[in-house]
Amino acid sequence: MRFRCGTFDAAMSARVAAWIAAGRPMVVARQPADGANVLLGLTLPAAEGRRRIGCLVDHADLMHVRAPPTVVECLHRLADDVAAPLATLASRLADAGVRVGVYGSLAWEALSGEIYRHLESDVDLICDVSSCAEAEISIRLLAAAAARLPCRLDGEVRFPNGWAVAWRELAVAWGNADASLLVKGNADVGLSTLSAMLEQFERDALHA
């Protein structure tokens, strides 16, 4: 794979090349507006300082693209008091029709086999919803799981148009139409009220 690394450090560029040559994963970052290349990100393991590096690659050089790992795929990296509530959460979200993936340090561990987490590490989830009802169910289930976990549960609720909001922020705002939210898109980040975000989601759904 050809890539342009976001560092002038030759050693780091060589480390990224070795990582790619070993068939290890990288993550798709928020993309540049021109769309000419794909921006990928790599976080090195804890032993290497968990340094974050960005790389630009050509679309044609991508070998495989997959969704974030599932909760089930990551449970073997967790202690029982974390794994059990997360397994229950994943099952209940699936029953509600919500697809949930894992990102952050836990995902890096599951995908690479390297150590990324420490005693105070949180768990990051991305919940893909297709309706406002599913968003509300996700918030409720995430809050219930967070109350049972010995670590912090973070993450986002993402709508079909690609907009994502931190679930804790969304939970506080839910029911308050004028509440301001930080909304992350595929290529940008901005502020929106809850009502404007949901209205835009509904308009996008009608034209999908």
Q: Spans of 5+ residues with little confidence (pLDDT < 50)?
A: none
Q: Cα distance, first to last residue?
A: 35 Å
Q: So what's the overall shape? A: globular
Structural class of the helix and strand makeup?
alpha+beta
How many helices does DSSP assign?
7
- With strands numbered from the N-terminus, the spatial order across the biggest sheet is 1-4-3-2
Average pLDDT score: 89
Radius of gyration: 18 Å
Q: Major sheet, described briefly?
A: 4 strands, antiparallel
Write the element-wise H/E pattern from the N-terminal end onward.
EHEEEHHEHEHEEHEEH
Q: How many domains?
A: 2
DSSP, total strands: 10
Our estimate of the beta-strand percent is 15-25%
| Helix percentage | 25-40%
Secondary-structure blueprint:
Layout: E1 3-5, H1 10-21, E2 27-28, E3 38-43, E4 52-57, H2 71-74, H3 80-95, E5 99-103, H4 104-112, E6 123-128, H5 132-148, E7 153-158, E8 164-166, H6 167-173, E9 180-184, E10 189-193, H7 194-206
Parallel strand pairs: 6-7
Antiparallel strand pairs: 1-4, 2-3, 3-4, 5-6, 7-8, 9-10
